[in-house]
Design brief:
mainly alpha, Glycosyltransferase, two-stranded antiparallel ribbon, 9 strands
């Protein structure tokens, strides 16, 4: 798909929220049916395979990517909120609801992680804490069991965030238990988590650290982090799309004029710095962990697109970015009858403006991260009015 399919100076496709909800449901069915499976065939468990096709031994013994599963929970919560609004299950009455699958997934994450929710990376844990917080709220609204378990997750992980958010390097949150790197990937989602759980002063302190240490003064986007190397502090200058998302979320959650002004500047910076030239489409970051990056940013841009405290111009820019990126992922999809998993799944490209037939040709292994990315992008678009 050529880059000029979504020129920045022309009107965008006008798919409405209902159409995006339909597309999000299709993506949800594709991911849950193709990647979702029991852990060691244990009833009541659910986990996302890292890639398909894959063997049972590899799915148990190989890498399983804790933080991908956390975003899988988030996507299921999105679908569950839509189920709650429409009173219709995303995958039919005979299959589990999205909320039930999300609850099973959280339980199975603990089983697969050797009966613990903690791991060595504070950003991984922050993403799971954020998703279980949303799942807890969904459970409250649907009056389903599971709140006690979700509260336990948050209690255990909050202790981790408390220990990782120190005065070393002037503030911020360590990335891992090695404690030699404080960065945006950990600090931003922890700040958002603190803001959403009522620890606003701690959240603001982390945001202030990001603004003072990692905000690029010229580009207006957040750099990767500060590393301790041979006793020296080294700035890692890389700029990643997904890092901007939780910073934006924390700024909006905290509110106040200074934070809202910074959020507006960040939306404009994303539009200027992180889109494919000549379009409103957020650029892709490949496969592996990078296969989640664009989707995470789009999730939080949708919050900005709905936030009436922001200027209309900013909201319009955010909506344009979400809609254009979602439309690109949708148009670049392909069906995959070769997967032989019942209804042919939809395969979404790792790069929004490259056809899935190129990035995932027949015979190639398809990664969960990239499919979650497209799904969460459609979920984001479904929450917005037409561009």
């Amino acid at each position: 798909m050529p880059a000029d399919a979504f020129p920045a100076d022309q009107p965008l496709p006008l798919a409405g929220p209902q159409e995006w909800a339909t597309r999000a449901n299709q993506a949800a069915r594709s991911v849950t049916r193709s990647f979702g499976r029991r852990l060691l065939f244990v009833p009541g468990t659910h986990l996302g395979a890292v890639s398909i096709p894959t063997g049972t031994l590899r799915s148990v013994m190989g890498p399983w990517h804790y933080w991908w599963q956390a975003h899988y929970v988030d996507c299921l919560v999105d679908a569950g909120r839509r189920e709650l609004a429409t009173k219709t299950k995303f995958d039919g009455d005979s299959r589990p609801s999205a909320g039930r699958l999300a609850s099973r997934l959280v339980t199975t994450i603990r089983l697969r992680n050797l009966l613990r929710f903690e791991n060595h990376f504070y950003d991984d844990m922050a993403w799971l804490a954020l998703s279980t917080l949303r799942l807890e709220k969904l459970a409250e609204e649907t009056r389903k069991p599971g709140r006690r378990r979700n509260a336990y997750v948050r209690k255990r992980l909050t202790l981790q965030f408390d220990s990782a958010s120190t005065d070393d390097l002037g503030g911020g949150t360590f990335w891992s238990t090695r404690r030699d790197f404080k960065n945006t990937p950990a600090t931003a989602p922890v700040a958002l988590y603190f803001a959403r759980t009522g620890h606003r002063e701690r959240a603001q302190s982390l945001v202030n650290w990001l603004n003072s240490k990692l905000l690029h003064p010229g580009r207006g986007v957040y750099q990767d982090g500060l590393r301790i190397r041979n006793g020296e502090t080294v700035l890692e200058e890389a700029v990643y799309t997904y890092n901007q998302g939780p910073v934006l979320g924390a700024l909006l959650e905290l509110g106040g004029q200074e934070n809202l002004d910074r959020a507006a500047h960040l939306v404009e910076a994303v539009s200027r710095e992180l889109t494919i030239p000549g379009t409103h489409v957020i650029h892709g970051d490949g496969t592996g962990d990078g296969g989640l990056f664009t989707g995470i940013l789009v999730r939080y841009l949708a919050l900005a697109g709905r936030d009436e405290r922001l200027p209309e111009k900013t909201r319009g820019t955010a909506r344009d970015l979400v809609h254009a990126t979602a439309e690109a992922f949708w148009l670049s999809r392909r069906e995959a009858p070769e997967m032989k998993v019942g209804t042919p799944p939809l395969i979404f490209s790792s790069h929004p403006l490259r056809p899935a037939a190129e990035t995932y040709p027949v015979g190639a292994a398809v990664e969960l991260s990239t499919q979650l990315q497209a799904w969460m992008t459609f979920e984001a678009a479904a929450t917005l009015p037409p561009a």
